[in-house]
Design goal:
Layout (H helix, E strand, L loop, with lengths): L1 H35 L4 H24 L2 H27 L17 H30 L7 H25 L72 H11 L10 H8 L3 H22 L1
Helix pairs in contact: 1-2, 1-3, 2-3, 2-4, 3-4, 6-8, 7-8
């Protein structure tokens, strides 16, 4: 890498050296031309910088600009290169220009050619002001376009990640769970509860509708071993005394005394009495059976 940088630096240095020597050769001819069209010594000394200096500026602009602006900079570079070449050519054809013995404003014997050459030599400074300002403005307002290779690589990388994720999806996603067939609840016989009412045939009780189980995505079971937990503290254990079936039934009768039959459900009894779902269902069936028997006697 260091050798590559040194080679590029040497190439640029050699180019600057060649351009500097070429400018020195052209500077002599352009200075004499400027003196022949009426410029004083100071103006004649600065005249080569006006012509060849704008050529260097246009060359740098072509390396920075793009599209139409770059083509404009190339046109300016070509026009001033041709103008400098013509003036150097005239300087070589007219020996009197070397000793500055030529008549003032006379660059050629043929009048039309002389007028064209004088117009060219005198218009180059004005053109340098206009074209130089325009090129500098274009360079300052230029915004480089984003590199297309980087965006292409990013799209390819995104597409690769998308394909890879799609391929892994079939392996990592668990199979869908088939919904279970809804099972209607059957009346549970209460064997540990004894009713004091006479045994009579009871009307059938319609089972409560059970909503079908929705299909839900189940997360894959983690294979990470669970961390062992400690013993449950005594404070967290329930200190409520265990109730007998008769006590549970009495509490359920008191809690549902004002409830209509439609509201007497196992879930409602479970919340009021704070018991297990199995006991709640048993209490519900017993309370509904008692109400049915009471209604039959009243009729």
């Amino acid at each position: 890498m260091s050798l590559h940088r040194k080679g590029r630096a040497a190439l640029v240095l050699a180019l600057v050296t060649v351009v500097g020597m070429a400018f020195r050769v052209s500077w002599n001819a352009l200075r004499d031309i400027a003196g022949a069209v009426g410029a004083d010594d100071t103006a004649a000394t600065l005249y080569p910088f006006v012509v060849d200096g704008l050529m260097a500026l246009a060359l740098i602009a072509t390396l920075v600009l793009a599209d139409d602006a770059r083509r404009f900079a190339l046109r300016v570079l070509g026009a001033y290169t041709i103008a400098s070449l013509v003036l150097n050519y005239v300087h070589g054809l007219v020996p009197e220009l070397h000793g500055r013995t030529v008549d003032w404003g006379r660059l050629a014997d043929w009048d039309p050619a002389n007028w064209a050459l004088v117009l060219l030599a005198t218009s180059l400074p004005v053109g340098s002001i206009y074209f130089g300002s325009d090129l500098v403005a274009k360079v300052l307002h230029h915004r480089p376009a984003p590199i297309a290779v980087a965006s292409t690589n990013a799209e390819e990388s995104t597409e690769t990640e998308r394909k890879r994720s799609t391929a892994d999806l079939a392996v990592s996603t668990p199979a869908p769970i088939t919904p279970n067939t809804p099972v209607l609840p059957r009346p549970v016989a209460v064997g540990f509860l004894k009713s004091t009412l006479p045994a009579k045939p009871l009307p059938p009780v319609d089972p409560a509708p059970v909503a079908s189980i929705e299909r839900r995505a189940v997360a894959a079971e983690s294979t990470r071993p669970r961390r062992a937990t400690g013993r449950v503290p005594a404070v967290a254990k329930s200190t409520r005394p265990k109730r007998t079936p008769e006590q549970l039934l009495a509490e359920a009768r008191t809690a549902t005394a004002d409830w209509p039959d439609a509201k007497v459900t196992a879930e409602g009894i479970r919340r009021e009495v704070r018991t297990s779902p199995a006991n709640a269902r048993s209490l519900r069936d017993t309370i509904l059976a008692e109400r049915a028997a009471t209604a039959a006697e009243a009729a």
